[in-house]
């Protein structure tokens, strides 16, 4: 379970770096589909399957939030570097 949560968090962070927030809906639905398909193979009960889905979805969203904040922090650092340069004026 911990490995799946870590993988979900890192996947969310990668998607947070590259995509807008609308990508979370298909990713969450894919997480649910994976949980439904793996439940009989791992002989999980319904509650265990739903718990795995909830943990996967929450860590996916948390990873997306982390990746999105990282993207904006890098963009802000780059913008501050560009603005801090003195302007050359024509005389």
Total number of beta strands:
0
Content of β-strand: under 5%
Oligomer status? single chain
**CA-based shape:** rod-shaped
Q: Roughly what is the average pLDDT, rounded to an integer? A: 87
Please indicate the count of domains: 1
Structural class: mainly alpha
Characterise this structure.
80% of the residues lie in helices and 0% in strands. The chain has 3 helices and no strands. It has one domain (2-83). Helix 2 packs antiparallel against helix 3 (46-83). With 91 residues, the chain is mainly alpha-helical. The protein has helices at residues 2-18, 24-41, 46-83.
Keywords:
single chain; mainly alpha; 3 helices
In short:
With 91 residues, this protein is mainly α. It has helices spanning 2-18, 24-41, 46-83. Helix 1 packs parallel to helix 3 (46-83) and helix 2 (24-41) runs antiparallel to helix 3.
Helix/strand layout:
Layout: H1 2-18, H2 24-41, H3 46-83
Helix pairs in contact: 1-3, 2-3
């Amino acid at each position: 379970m911990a490995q799946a949560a870590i993988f979900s968090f890192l996947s969310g962070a990668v998607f947070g770096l590259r995509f807008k927030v609308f990508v979370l809906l298909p990713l969450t639905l894919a997480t649910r589909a994976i949980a439904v398909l793996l439940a009989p193979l791992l002989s999980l009960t319904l509650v265990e399957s739903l718990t795995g889905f909830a943990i996967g979805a929450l860590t996916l969203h948390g990873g997306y939030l982390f990746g999105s904040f990282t993207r904006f922090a890098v963009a802000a650092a780059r913008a501050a570097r560009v603005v801090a340069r003195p302007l050359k004026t024509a005389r």
